[in-house]
Amino acid sequence: MEIEVKNLIFGSVRDLMLEQQPEKWISTSTEIFGNLDRLNPGICTDGDVGKISFGPDDKRMKIRTSRFLTRKLHLNSGFLDDVQIRSIQTHIDDILFGDMIKTFISTGSDITKNYKDGVGGSSCMAGCCSKYTKLYENNPDVYSQLIIKRGNDSARAMVVKLDNGRFMLDRIYATAENLIPKMEDYAKDQHWISAWCKDPGLRGEDSMDLIVTGISYVNGEVPYQDTLDFGRIRDGLLDMMANSNHGYDFSMDDTNGNINGENNYASCSYCGCGLPEDGTYFYSGEYYCEYCFNERAFTCDHCCETASKDDSQYIENEGAHVCSYCAENHYANCDECERCFSTECIRFVESEERYVCEGCLDQHYQECTDCHEFFSELIELEEGDEVCEDCRENKLQKDIDDCID
């Protein structure tokens, strides 16, 4: 399998460079093939998706496909730009991991969780703003969500049941562009309307038919809309549509969960005091004054979601009060000092397969001056460079080759 992967990578680079930089390919093809032959790339035996294994059989390492192309083959060093490398990586991953794609439909509270976890990438409704999307969670007869995942990449799109009984795939958000056609193909196979398109005339359906009415809602939980961006209230229920000719009262463009002109604030659910707009707190379906809110709940410093005080965990190194969900999913212990840090401050040292904080990284590890990976020990060369074992062998081999030439 290793030889197949080596040939796949070589062929992918060759095809692109012959098309776009044929002269450069002639002068670099021998070097690229030599590096591939030395690195012996293959699929990870542990099934890790989106990564390439390499190295001697008794000391295999693994790295993301894109980083293998840049850090091991050095294709970004005067060879190819980021767009070209991304194109090669997408082609390789499609062939190696295409059958590992997972497709599923989320409903109810899982939709809110997907937004909270950033499935499909960031947007104005993702992360701490997921609390503004609960309209979807509370109307399962109307809303579901298409999710496609492959390794660490993902794509999402809302699926809306229209008044005419058809289903509409709304705007697609993705962390990898190559997942977008797969979302569109799935929608086509289901005979859904693909409503989101830069040219409204290509939506595949008369925009007058893109309407859903009678939706239950709570002000503060109404998400920004990409396609059904006109709204009105009729008999206490929300109607949304893509064509303003239906008659509308407001645009669905608020990113704070509100419907323009509405105000649900009245009195504190616990003490009964009046609630001004700038002094109201919403928690567990009720509105509170600042004092009563602080007695019962807190705002997570990471996700900005409100939670019970009993659910609070204090991260000493960060000085942050976080909910148990964020503590489990966005914080981790350093394998060296065993203290807890945000995952943004933790780095995976591939050579040791350990997660370490920035302080321990500086104290216990050194950066190879050639490959820029971190190691617990480096080898000092005569010219003063400190390199890892692999890079030293590469230098020695290059010196031997230069002498032969």
Notable traits:
single chain; 405 residues; alpha+beta; 4 domains; 6-stranded mixed sheet; 4-stranded antiparallel sheet; 11 helices; 27 strands; flat
Which percent bin holds the helix content? 25-40%
Structural class: alpha+beta
| Total separate domains | 4
> What is the makeup of the main sheet?
6 strands, mixed
The mean pLDDT is 84
State the helix count.
11
What radius of gyration results from the CA coordinates?
A: 27 Å
Overall form: flat
Instruction: State the end-to-end distance.
Output: 33 Å
Strand content: 15-25%
User: Unreliable runs, pLDDT <50, ≥5 residues?
Assistant: 197-204
The total of beta strands comes to: 27
Please tell me about this protein's structure.
With 405 residues, this protein is of the alpha+beta class. The chain has 4 domains: 98 residues, no CATH class; 151 residues; 53 residues, no CATH class; 65 residues, no CATH class. The strands form 10 sheets. Strands 4, 5, 6, 7, 8 and 9 form a 6-stranded mixed sheet that branches. A 4-stranded antiparallel sheet has the order 10-12-11-13, with no helix packed on it. A hairpin with a 2-residue loop joins strand 14 and strand 15. The longest helix has 19 residues. It is flat and about 85 Å long. The two termini are 33 Å apart. The relative contact order is 0.06. About 2% of the residues have low confidence.
Task: Spell out the blueprint of helices and strands.
Elements: H1 2-20, H2 22-39, E1 42-43, E2 51-54, E3 61-64, H3 65-72, H4 82-97, E4 102-106, H5 109-117, H6 134-137, E5 143-150, E6 153-161, E7 167-169, E8 173-174, H7 180-189, E9 193-194, E10 211-215, E11 230-234, E12 237-241, E13 250-251, E14 281-283, E15 286-288, H8 290-296, E16 297-299, E17 306-308, E18 312-315, E19 320-323, H9 324-329, E20 331-333, E21 340-342, E22 346-349, E23 354-357, H10 358-364, E24 366-367, E25 374-375, E26 379-380, E27 386-387, H11 389-404
Parallel strand pairs: 7-9
Antiparallel strand pairs: 1-2, 2-3, 4-5, 5-6, 6-7, 6-8, 10-12, 11-12, 11-13, 14-15, 16-17, 18-19, 20-21, 22-23, 24-25, 26-27
